[in-house]
Specification:
By secondary structure, the chain is an alpha/beta fold. It contains 14 helices and 12 strands. The longest helix has about 55 residues. It is rod-shaped and about 135 Å long.
């Protein structure tokens, strides 16, 4: 078996040598180089394949963020991509997970303004996908007009790790209320905060979609004695509250009278809200094909008109604390690539990998295969020309010199040339030139011999 393999390899090597006119060492070098290029192409073909699973960090069970993720999962499943959903406490915890290289997560929902002084250079934004209004429910005999009216009261501002808590602290600070002061700040999740508000254990509860469900908010809206706070100073907040880079990130939003329940006229008057946008944040190494899939899903989910946004307003490449990824920028300008628009995702991915991995390999191999024989043949010709140069010099000396001793010395030099030439190893494709060289050596030898006999 082994002998058969050796014979087979020897035949392939001989065929390669004779076809391209290469020596054994050059043949082996060329074969190794070709194998390395092919192996690299195969490696890149598999390495460049988009993963079939995306891990997303969302929000607490039942929150708006988690429900959004479940809708994303349904859309991605059409293209055989699984979305693994990880619950969290909200935007701040999502951001910390994305920044932690040891934590396995690809993307997450993050509301604007929570990055603080964190280094987010390794993260990119796929764009803003929706508004996330801050809703404040409070229990009071008369409507509250200013946030400063909550000073000295008990406020549920959301759990640690939530975007709700981050924004609530920023707004309260702007009104002179900070942790440790006269105002009691309680870190409760949405469910507990709603229950505490109904039971009179807290005076107001701050809620956002990253930590609260729509059902909890609707329940509070329908509860007698519970009011929704209207930001009559919304314009001021959207211009004064900034992130660490001094960029404004809040938006003024209007909830029209009766828009939630026309029959019960909820809310009973126009309500002004403020809130950041929610961004789809990813690690910078997210595969471009997955970036396109996520943005396509975002367009389907968030592109429609709703109470707080216009048709086609989202997703949008709004840059705040995170730079917009190059893949997202390309998507917003021209949509998905031609292959992904024209073919099913798996087929487009396969075709794209073939083009990326094997076409450059062929482009590289063709010149290499063409230049190696040329360079080798050039070297063989130089070796042959070297002996012709020595023959020319020897023949010129034959004409110039006289005396039998000098001719004997020239004959000895010619014998050495003949011996060295016979030791040359040349491929069969140079056999004609090799034998012509030997004939010319014989020709010079005959002239030397004839010259010796003449004298």
């Amino acid at each position: 078996m082994r002998q058969g393999r050796r014979l087979g390899l020897a035949q392939v090597e001989t065929l390669f040598m004779e076809t391209f006119g290469l020596g054994r060492a050059v043949t082996l070098t060329a074969v190794i180089l070709i194998l390395l290029i092919v192996l690299f192409g195969v490696f890149w073909f598999f390495h460049s394949a988009p993963p079939d699973t995306i891990t997303i960090t969302t929000g607490p069970e039942g929150s708006v963020f988690q429900k959004m993720a479940q809708r994303y999962a349904t859309i991605l499943a059409r293209d055989r991509v699984k979305l693994k959903i990880l619950p969290s406490q909200g935007s701040m915890e999502n951001l910390k997970r994305l920044l932690d290289p040891s934590f396995h997560v690809d993307v997450g929902f993050v509301q604007g303004g929570v990055a603080g002084g964190l280094n987010v250079d390794k993260l990119v934004s796929l764009g803003s996908i929706t508004y996330e209004p801050l809703v404040i429910f409070y229990s009071s005999a008369k409507p509250a007009e200013l946030l400063s009216e909550f000073s000295g009261k008990r406020l549920a501002i959301g759990p640690e790790g939530s975007g709700t808590r981050t924004l609530a602290l920023a707004l309260l600070k702007a009104n002179g209320m900070e942790p440790g002061g006269a105002t009691t700040l309680v870190d409760l999740d949405a469910d507990d905060a709603a229950e505490a508000l109904v039971e009179g254990k807290v005076d107001a509860a701050f809620m956002m979609g990253d930590s609260a469900s729509g059902q909890v908010m609707l329940k509070l809206l329908r509860t007698p004695g519970i009011h929704m706070y209207s930001f009559i100073q919304a314009d001021g907040y959207t211009r004064r509250i900034t992130n660490v880079n001094k960029i404004v990130y809040l938006n003024k939003l209007e909830l029209p009278q009766g828009s939630i329940d026309f029959g019960k006229n909820i809310p009973t008057h126009d309500v002004w809200l403020i809130g950041p946008t929610v961004e789809l944040i990813a690690r910078s190494n997210l595969h471009p094909a997955l970036s396109d899939l996520l943005l396509e899903a975002a367009t389907e989910l968030h592109g429609r008109a709703s109470l707080l946004q216009r048709q086609g307003e989202f997703p949008a490449p709004l840059e705040h604390e995170f730079r917009i990824s190059a893949d997202a920028t390309r998507f917003y300008k021209s949509g998905k690539g031609f292959l992904y628009r024209s073919l099913p995702f798996w087929m487009a991915s396969l075709t794209n990998r073939i083009l990326v991995a094997f076409v450059p390999m062929l482009v590289l191999l063709i010149p290499v295969l063409r230049i190696i024989p040329v360079v080798y043949q050039w070297r063989i010709r130089l070796r042959i020309y070297r002996w012709y140069r020595l023959l020319l010099v020897l023949e010129q000396e034959l004409v110039a010199r006289s005396g039998s001793e000098k001719r004997e010395a020239l004959l000895l030099r010619l014998d050495q040339i003949d011996e060295d030439v016979n030791k040359m190893k040349v491929p069969a494709s140079f056999g004609d030139q090799f034998y012509v060289l030997r004939q010319h050596i014989g020709f010079v030898r005959s002239r030397l011999v004839d010259s010796t006999h003449t004298h």
